[in-house]
Design goal:
Helices cover about 50% and strands about 20% of the residues. The chain is α/β, with parallel strands linked by helices.
């Protein structure tokens, strides 16, 4: 019987052995011992060798003790595993990047990890736990948040992503996120809280920043719309004031009335300047400042600024002058309006702060490539100067040297800030050189593309008499101004207040066989703006030949290109000036073409008219004849002319010069004195002879001679020449002489 039991136990031992491995080997050893003892017991008992009754209990005792030993061994192994697990958990807690804590409902800390110590900027775990005895008062920035935490964890048994502000040891505030659960006893009473705490200050800041960014973008979009509307709303009444006073000044006014009207006109222009400054600054701040890229004449822009500022300088009895280095290319590509704006800001300030002496604009070539010109502009004055300390405030928004300057000289303090941003957006920089009491030099640089050297716009002026023109504007005052201008041009004019009325008027005129020749459209109109009206006109087969002119009070960059793509022939900004409208219509009804080598494709038949194109047209009407036999001198003179956007026809003797003047109406002649076949003196006398066949006997003639002796100039004048240039030619004097006589 005992052998059977032992056999069963042996099977059990073998199974345990396969499962327990090392522990199983020990069990096998015990089992074998028991087996042998049991077997011995049976043998002895069966053969009555000895009385073995006591051996079985002895074997049973061994079995019991062996099982006890095995169980003890298992407990020992389990304890070791618990210790290993505890060590692992301790390592996780101590090395966790987030804070781990245990705290009592009363607000005392029982356990924290190093990350939490670091998070709250304490020196050690002991320092943190020893310092804090009431979390609600000492750690929570708002004690009500602690009560809210306790309420939620009591109600639900846990909290998830509980966010609140906590106080660090150095009294700084951090935003934290807490995840915790409540440990309870059998009665359901809370013993302590355990959980994690994470510093989410940066994450929260990033979210707030993203929200702020989106709000700013929304604000910028709103600001952009606001600026467009405000530009229209402000410029429209200003257009009325300036336009009406211009018409008023053309009427018969007595001296006092004319003085009042002039004052209104000048004050309106000054107010418009301030409004433009504010609108421009707002556009820059909103990131909505756009630039236009068109061909323009740099010299013309600088001269326009000088003409404007010279009047103000004369009122203060100070000098105003300019110098453009001959190396600076005159024909460039960029935004003349923004360039003029910077020059007016700087020169206007210079005149304002100069009591005696003068102001001088200097334009120099900084550097150039085959396609680009980097130009340096300097505005020098002999004014009050600016201290080094005060210079630090310049170019900042709404900033002037000091309050006394604002009281004495006025101004918004925006001009220099706008100029700085514009210069930077034109690929340049801006700065100042000044000493207090010794005047100032403001400078800025800008990058422009260069135009081809010989580009010429030719215009055959059109006859406006009897032309039928439709004016469209929702503002009756603007229509009165346009009708007044058009009437003075001997045009037939009709005006309507909306796009719908305009389409009706155009279609009715077509049906009656007396169509409109042109239409002047306001941009900003309700229901149907000028752009959409233009599209509707061009899409109507019966109306598509009507010439469209856009007048915009909005004046946003890029609008001109948009209008050209629609089919407009001209784009001008308000307030529109009488002579500007006249030049525009004269050009619209005339013939306009561009001649330039390698710059236009064959299908380019017309030019989109802007005020800058009108300026170039005026200059391009200068037709120059150069009479010079020396090839080097010919090349040099043509080079100087091309730098300033001028071209010339060349002949190599006086006889050919006369033949040219018989066939073409030139504006001016540049006459070399010594030439073969017929010299300059004889040619001039022949030109002045009323019996000769030249088209203009009074054409200005400028002598160019290498003779610089006393009396040579008188000899030229006596021969009938108007002016005199000695060789080698000074480029600045050369151009100044040409401008002087062509303007006359």
């Amino acid at each position: 019987m005992s052998i059977i039991i032992t056999g069963i136990y042996t099977i059990y031992v073998l199974i345990i052995c396969s499962i327990k491995k090392r522990e199983g080997a020990f069990i096998v050893l015990i089992g074998i011992i028991i087996f042998f003892i049991t077997a011995l017991n049976d043998i002895l008992y069966t053969n009555l060798i000895i009385n073995t009754a006591y051996i079985f209990p002895f074997g049973l005792s061994i079995f019991v003790f062996s099982q006890a030993f095995i169980i003890s061994f298992k407990f020992s192994k389990a304890f070791i595993k618990v210790e290993e697990l505890s060590s692992t958990l301790s390592g996780i807690v101590n090395n966790s990047p987030v804070g781990i804590f245990r705290s009592t409902p009363q607000g005392r800390l029982q356990m924290i990890n190093p990350s939490m110590v670091k998070m709250f900027k304490y020196d050690s775990v002991e320092d943190f736990i020893g310092t804090i005895d009431n979390l609600g008062k000492q750690v929570y920035a708002n004690s009500e948040e602690r009560e809210k935490f306790k309420y939620l964890i009591t109600k639900d048994g846990f909290v998830r992503d509980f966010e609140c502000e906590n106080i660090c040891k150095d009294r700084s505030i951090i935003m934290v996120s807490i995840n915790a659960y409540a440990m309870k006893n059998e009665k359901g009473d809370i013993l302590y809280y355990e959980g994690t705490i994470e510093d989410i200050t940066e994450r929260k800041r990033a979210v707030e920043l993203e929200i702020a960014k989106k709000a700013a973008e929304d604000s910028n979009r709103s600001k952009s719309d606001f600026l467009a509307n405000m530009s229209h709303e402000i410029r429209t009444p200003m257009n009325g004031v300036i336009g009406m006073t211009t018409l008023l000044l053309d009427t018969n006014l007595d001296k006092e009335q004319q003085e009042y009207a002039n004052t209104i006109n000048q004050s309106s222009e000054a107010l418009l300047t301030i409004i433009n400054d504010i609108l421009d600054f707002s556009k820059i701040e909103a990131g909505k400042m756009e630039f236009e890229d068109i061909d323009f004449d740099l010299r013309k822009v600088v001269e326009d600024v000088c003409d404007l500022m010279a009047i103000k300088a004369d009122e203060k009895a100070i000098e105003f002058g300019s110098y453009i280095d001959p190396e600076v290319p005159s024909l460039i590509y960029g935004d003349p309006g923004r360039l003029r704006q910077i020059l007016l800001n700087l020169s206007g300030n210079a005149v304002k702060f100069t009591v005696k002496g003068g102001v001088f604009i200097q334009v120099l070539l900084d550097k150039e490539t085959d396609t680009d010109a980097y130009i340096l502009f300097k505005v020098k004055d002999t004014g009050i100067g600016i201290s080094i300390e005060a210079q630090k405030k310049l170019f900042q928004s709404f900033s002037q040297v000091d309050a006394s300057v604002t009281r004495k000289y006025g101004g918004t303090g925006l001009g220099l800030a706008i100029s700085k941003r514009l210069a930077e957006m034109m690929g340049g920089d801006i700065g100042i050189e000044s000493s207090e009491g010794k005047g100032s030099t403001f400078w800025f640089t800008a990058n422009f593309k260069k135009q081809p050297e010989c580009k010429k716009i030719e215009v055959t002026p059109g006859d406006m008499k009897g032309k039928k023109i439709l004016s469209v504007d929702d503002n009756p005052i603007n229509l009165d101004i346009l009708n007044g201008y058009l009437k003075s041009f001997n045009c037939r004019s009709k005006s309507v207040l909306s796009g719908k009325e305009a389409l009706m008027a155009l279609r009715e005129a077509h049906m009656n066989g007396d169509p409109f020749d042109a239409a002047i459209l306001d941009y900003m109109m309700p229901y149907m703006d000028g752009a959409n009206l233009g599209i509707a006109i061009k899409e109507d087969p019966n109306l598509k030949n009507v010439k469209l002119i856009m007048l915009s009070s909005r004046g946003m960059r890029g609008d001109a290109k948009k209008m050209e793509s629609i089919g407009f022939i001209a784009y001008l900004t308000k307030p529109i000036k009488r002579n500007q409208l006249y030049d525009c219509l004269s050009t619209v009804f005339g013939k306009i073409t561009i001649k330039a080598e390698e710059i236009l494709s064959q299908d380019k038949k017309s030019v989109f008219i802007t005020r800058h194109i009108l300026d170039e047209i005026k200059k391009s009407n200068i037709r120059i004849l150069l009479a010079e036999d020396n090839k080097v001198n010919q090349t040099l003179a043509l080079k100087y002319l091309s730098k300033f956007g001028l071209c010339a026809d060349v002949v190599d003797n006086g006889k050919k010069a006369i033949e040219a003047l018989e066939n073409k109406d030139y504006t001016i002649v540049l006459m070399d004195v010594q030439m073969p076949e017929m010299d300059g003196f004889e040619a001039t006398r022949s030109i002045r002879d009323i019996g000769s066949k030249v088209l203009n006997h009074d054409i200005p003639i400028i002598a160019m001679t290498a003779h610089a002796m006393k009396g040579d100039e008188n000899r030229c004048i006596s021969a009938g020449m108007n002016d005199y240039i000695s060789k080698p030619i000074n480029p600045q004097i050369f151009i100044e002489k040409i401008i002087k006589w062509t303007e006359k």
